[in-house]
Specification:
The complex is a heterodimer of chains A (about 260) and B (about 190). By secondary structure, chain A is α+β, with helices and mostly antiparallel strands. Chain A has ten helices and eight strands. Chain A folds into two domains: about 55 residues, Orthogonal Bundle (3-methyladenine DNA Glycosylase II, Chain A, domain 3); about 160 residues, Alpha-Beta Plaits, CATH 3.30.70.20. In chain A, helix 2 runs antiparallel to helix 4. Chain A is flat. With about 190 residues, chain B is mostly helical. Chain B has a domain of about 130 residues. Chain B starts with a helix and ends in an 8-residue tail after the last helix. The longest helix of chain B has about 30 residues. The chains are: A alpha+beta (about 260), B mainly alpha (about 190). Chains A and B meet through helix 1 of A and helix 3 and helix 4 of B.
């Protein structure tokens, strides 16, 4: 009996002693934490996505209180979180523009082919490293879903070989944009639903050769846009969402049908 | 006095815990980006090493050995180390908040820093006396700090160096660490 009792007593005694010491130390070195930081932390969605530019939700919460960081930076939380934070701080709620991610590629299986079969690790990153990817178009969506696996909101699906964002689920945290090896994903205001679904850096002829849905860089959209919101750079059109008014003139004019309304 | 000096210097230089025994690599790579956090971490680890030795030595020889409980060494030592790490953390949070936030997660990780446990266990294994143990802990801590401080200088140079894309970041850091480690081999045989 004693052989079991002594070890238990020794270890238990050490534990109790350490516990008492720590409790005393915690009292002596107690630091007053601003209770607003804790409350703001609770108001944030705790996705720890880093879209606000701070290292996680708690870091952002303390930055709001201590450094006066803007209250409307949380993208997954959106207007709801901004409103709660403003209420905690007692300030007027800052305006929040709802954002969403969009994949600038429409090269699905019907439009383009693969150049070779890839048997390695099935991730976009790995494929991209191997001769720049296995797609006929080196700029398009590889379709193995690196973005799907990082998305914490389940807002991305790979449909027919191309990643698609479901805007109603998207938290616009930007994780997918960071992980896409072809940099096809951008974060844009949710209300601006006209998008160019091609990012090809090849000229019109080369693009058409490999993908039926590719932008040929004809610049008709540039001429048709009443607001100067669309411009062709590096052989494909891109929309300046600050100027775009959702009129759809470019969409109707586009001969290659690469401009789509992604309203959903 | 002479043995004390030999123990101190050999723990610091010839048997440097990071660069010769390869203990405590995690904070060595994690906290050596800036000089001030490197020296802060070095001081924290030195403090924990000395305090842990001050407590574990009497526990081992006073309580564990008489009761034939030497097999409890690891458990009890880790308990003591965790206690001191928590104390240091509380202290820094209150008194040096800037250092507390720059050390970040590496501060609680001293608990599982094998260099700290290594010192306390090696003190027992080498049959050091109480005084020698404390001096050994001091030397080990100073050696850890020396390695961190030297390496923070190396890393600063590394940031401006033109490194091939493949080696950027961790690989280049590890290669630099190995070169620093090789340079410490020059001390071997100094005190034997």
């Amino acid at each position: 009996m004693i052989t079991y009792l002594i070890p238990a007593l020794v270890l238990g005694g050490c534990g109790v002693l350490a516990g008492v010491l720590l409790t005393v130390a915690a009292k002596v070195f107690h630091v007053e934490v601003d209770e607003r930081i804790e409350k703001i932390g609770e108001a944030l969605p705790q996705a720890n996505c880093g879209a606000c530019g701070y290292a996680g939700c708690s870091d952002y919460a303390s930055a709001i209180v201590q450094k006066g960081a803007p209250t409307n930076l949380c993208r997954p939380g959106g207007a709801e979180a901004a409103g709660k934070i403003a209420a905690i701080l007692g300030t007027a709620a800052a305006e929040v523009v709802p954002m969403t991610a969009v994949v600038h590629c429409n090269g699905d299986c019907n439009a383009t082919q693969t150049a070779f079969a890839f048997d390695g690790v099935q991730s976009c990153k790995a494929v991209k490293r191997f001769y720049g990817g296995n797609g006929a178009c080196k700029y398009g969506c590889i379709g193995l879903g690196d973005c799907v696996s990082v998305c914490e909101h389940g807002a991305i699906r790979v449909v027919n070989g191309v990643a698609k964002v479901i805007p109603s689920l998207c938290g616009a945290c930007g994780q997918c944009a960071a992980v896409c090896p072809n940099k096809l994903i951008s974060i844009k205001p949710l209300a601006k639903h006209i998008d160019v679904l091609c990012s090809s850096g090849d000229n019109g002829k080369a693009t058409k050769l490999v993908c039926k849905n590719g932008c040929i860089g004809c610049k008709i959209c540039e001429k048709k846009c009443p607001n100067g919101a669309i411009a062709v750079n590096n052989f494909h059109a891109a929309i300046d969402y600050d100027k775009c008014t959702n009129c759809g003139a470019c969409m109707e004019a586009c001969p290659a049908k690469v401009i789509h309304s992604c309203e959903k | 006095m002479k043995t004390m000096l030999v123990i101190l210097l050999s723990a610091m230089l010839t048997d440097n815990f990071v660069l010769s025994k390869f203990m405590g690599i995690c904070p060595f790579l994690g906290v050596s980006k800036k000089l001030d956090s490197a020296s802060g971490m070095g001081i924290a680890v030195t403090f924990v090493m000395i305090c842990a030795t001050l407590v574990t030595y009497p526990i081992h020889h006073g309580i564990l050995v008489p009761n034939g409980l030497e097999y409890f060494d690891t458990v009890v030592f880790i308990l003591v180390i965790a206690l001191f790490v928590q104390l240091v953390e509380n202290f820094l949070k209150k008194c040096v908040p800037s250092l507390y936030s720059s050390l970040g997660v590496y501060l609680p990780l001293i608990t599982t820093n094998c260099a700290v446990l290594g010192v306390t266990v090696l003190n027992i294994d080498n049959n050091y006396s109480f005084g020698e143990s404390v001096v050994n802990a001091l030397g080990a801590g100073l050696g850890f700090m020396l390695a961190l401080v030297i390496f923070s200088g190396v890393r600063k140079k590394l940031e401006y160096a033109d490194i091939p894309e493949t080696f950027k970041g961790v690989p280049a850091t590890l290669i630099a660490a190995s070169i620093v480690s090789v340079s410490f081999m020059g001390f071997s045989g100094l005190f034997s």
